[in-house]
Amino acid sequence: MTFKHIISRDNSLFKQLKKLAESSRERRKLGETLLDGAHLVETYLEVFGEPRLLIIAEGESTAEVSHLIQQLADVPTVMFPTLMFQELAPVASPTGILALVKTPTISPPEAANFVLMLEDIQDPGNLGSMLRTAAAAGVEAVYLSEGCTEAWSPKALRGGQGAQFTLPIIERADLVGLASNFAGQVLATTLRGESIYKLDLTGPTAIAIGNEGNGLSSAMQKAASHHVTIPIAEGVESLNAAAAASICLFERVRQTL
């Protein structure tokens, strides 16, 4: 295979890729994002086909990355020196391969029976973890509020490990309106509420998880049909938002087995 070797930070393609890696506005404007690592690229390939561009780092690569590069020999490929590549990667120890892809769009079902609503989640790693859990639990649609971090950032994609390629994800959603019109029960996770283990979750259910520090807004709590909590040991203030989401989602899974 042949590839273009770029060594200057003044190169227009490098500047564009760096902007894409760092700016959610740029990703939304172009409808593109960057995938980091062979696993994400392979998963995207299986679901949506070839990426628009491969980006590789100078130096030795793993057998997995080398195989993927050979498999995608017809895809335009650029190589950057290690330090320049690291400026594009979302982690401190990059895997040596990135891919430029079109941001997928998956439409939600008309009447979803199992929904996750996320309000103002700030950490992209947390969001990615929640999306990964939601996909594993069989959630049919995930709605993100206006204040949520972006689902398609490189860090959220890495945390999701392919969840974004199978889940209908609707960003900048009106969660209060959705909760008010949901044809089923809407559970607002709070520090004080009914134990989630005492509720019947076998019917249409939406689970709302709030901001890591402040929880759900008062408006969202009012729109919910139930306030629920996860019983925890005395003296422990609360659970991480991603952990709380996992427990709630899989309690619903347990009840519907």
Automatic annotation (TrEMBL):
Domain called tRNA/rRNA methyltransferase SpoU type: residue spans: 114-250
UniProt GO molecular function: RNA binding; RNA methyltransferase activity
According to the entry, every stretch annotated as the MRM3-like substrate binding domain falls at 11-99
Pfam families found in the cross-reference section = MRM3-like_sub_bind, SpoU_methylase
- Top-rank taxon: Bacteria
Keywords from the named record: Methyltransferase, Transferase
Q: Which GO terms describe its biological process?
A: methylation; RNA processing
Keyword Methyltransferase in the entry? The reply is yes
Gene3D superfamilies (alphabetical): 3.30.1330.30, 3.40.1280.10
UniProt lists the family membership as follows:
Belongs to the class IV-like SAM-binding methyltransferase superfamily. RNA methyltransferase TrmH family.
From the Swiss-Prot or TrEMBL record, give the protein name: tRNA/rRNA methyltransferase (SpoU)
**What is the native source organism of this protein?**
Candidatus Methylopumilus turicensis
Which lineage?
Answer: Bacteria, Pseudomonadati, Pseudomonadota, Betaproteobacteria, Nitrosomonadales
